[in-house]
Specification:
Layout (H helix, E strand, L loop, with lengths): L3 E5 L11 E8 L2 H8 L8 E4 L5 E2 L4 E8 L4 E6 L3 E7 L4 H10 L24 E2 L2 E2 L4 E8 L5 E5 H4 L16 E11 L9 H9 L7 H15 L7 E5 L5 E2 L1 H10 L6 E2 L5 E2 L2 H7 L6 E2 L2 E3 L6 E4 L5 H19 L8 E2 L1
Parallel strand pairs: 2-5, 3-5, 4-20
Antiparallel strand pairs: 1-2, 6-7, 7-12, 8-9, 10-11, 10-12, 13-19, 14-16, 15-16, 17-18, 18-19
Helix pairs in contact: 4-5
This protein binds uridine-diphosphate-2(N-acetylglucosaminyl) butyric acid.
Length: 337
């Protein structure tokens, strides 16, 4: 375990932004992480890095950046219907999903191909195609970055919400998630409620889909409209989908009769940010080294040499024009650092 100085983070963030970490260290076990946290090195501010897939680095990071590469996949509990697996926080999320699918363990197949690591997934309660991490979450173990102690968080403790958890709010920057426990189904019933999945399965003439079929369909859908970060730097959806009160929505619908919308159980209406951004003319538009992706306007991309500041400027311009046209304030889903 060596602490490096002024280390480039270009290959450690999916936007591919070339900023430097003042100090940088890779940890491969809980023990190593505890050692770092309890050493003099921890006098610096600490930042835990997973897959770097949900952040926009706008400047050099004047901190000790700790890259979590803690591995592991272990069945720790099993009954007739379910299995609990304990997974290392540094494991690649998609590899974890594929492992579950291969073992016929259901619950995470709709979350195929989401970039990032297992340890980062609870922080923003990742979700896609009708499933969220919280639906399969059992508990997690995290290291308190002040004391180095291991603490356990049950689901209620995490306060999961739409792309949200306590680790994005009150406990932001205070813990490193080292292990996540998931409860998976042995004879899973698949969730194909999301239109794009139904359409893909129909086109493939699959009537009784297995979790493998659902995973394959999700991979195909994502590949068809989301850019591969290894080819074109990006951080997935840049903004959250806004939710607005029904009265505000009805007033908007009078002006924009084709507005895409989804009623929510709480009476509010969700309007896809991608639609709002496209209506403002940003889809496929390139501004210098950055732009809104041609197939999904909610995804901002780095065409190669963009700086984080440039992407952030674009994001603010986009949010400004959405607010001017629709009176809706869209907020970033990614962490701006
Ligand atoms: N739309 C447009 N133009 C666009 C993009 C979208 O008009 O350029 C409209 C379309 O009507 C489309 C609707 O928006 O039907 C919804 O689009 P999509 O199905 O692509 O989903 P999304 O709401 O843009 C969310 C998540 C994604 C997740 C998908 C599928 C958020 C912020 N994003 O996107 O998550 O994969 O649903 O469940 O909730 C991520 O968080 O990084 C991410 C990719």
């Amino acid at each position: 375990m060596t602490i490096q100085e002024n280390h480039s983070l270009k290959t450690y963030n999916t936007f591919g932004l070339d900023v430097k970490a003042r100090y940088f260290v890779i940890v491969k076990s809980v023990k190593e992480l505890q050692e770092v946290v309890r050493s003099d090195a921890a006098d610096h501010d600490l930042m835990i890095l997973g897959g770097g897939s949900n952040m926009l680095l706008t400047k050099d990071v004047n901190k000790l950046v700790i890259l979590n590469q803690i591995e592991g996949f272990e069945v720790v509990e099993e009954n007739d219907h379910t299995v609990v697996v304990k997974v290392g926080g540094g494991e690649n999320w998609h590899e974890f999903v594929l492992k579950c699918v291969r073992r016929d363990l259901g619950g995470v197949e709709n979350l195929s191909l989401i970039p990032g690591t297992v340890g980062a997934a609870p922080i923003q309660n990742i979700g896609a195609y009708g499933v969220e991490l919280k639906d399969v979450f059992e508990r997690l173990k995290a290291i308190n970055l002040e004391s180095g102690a291991i603490e356990i968080f049950e689901s209620e403790d995490c306060q999961f919400g739409y792309r949200d958890s306590i680790f994005k709010r009150a406990l932001k920057g205070k813990y490193a998630i080292v292990q996540v426990y998931f409860r998976l189904q042995k004879e899973a019933s698949v969730n194909i409620s999301y239109g794009a999945i139904t359409n893909t399965l129909e086109a493939r003439n699959i009537e009784n889909p297995t979790i493998q079929d659902v995973s394959d369909a999700v991979i195909a859908i994502r590949q068809s409209k989301l850019p591969d970060p290894r080819v074109l730097g990006n951080s997935g959806s840049f903004f959250k989908n806004p939710e607005i009160p029904a009265a505000q929505f009805e007033a908007l619908q009078k002006r924009f009769s084709n507005i895409v919308h989804y009623p929510l159980p709480n009476g509010n209406i969700k309007v896809p940010a991608g639609w709002l951004i496209e209506q403002c003319g940003w889809k496929g538009k390139r501004v210098g080294n950055t732009g809104a992706y041609e197939k999904q306007a909610l995804v901002l991309v780095n065409y190669g040499e963009a700086t984080g500041e440039e992407v952030w400027q674009l994001a603010q311009d986009i949010a400004g024009s959405v607010e001017a046209k629709f009176g809706i304030r869209i907020v970033p889903e990614v962490n701006i650092l």
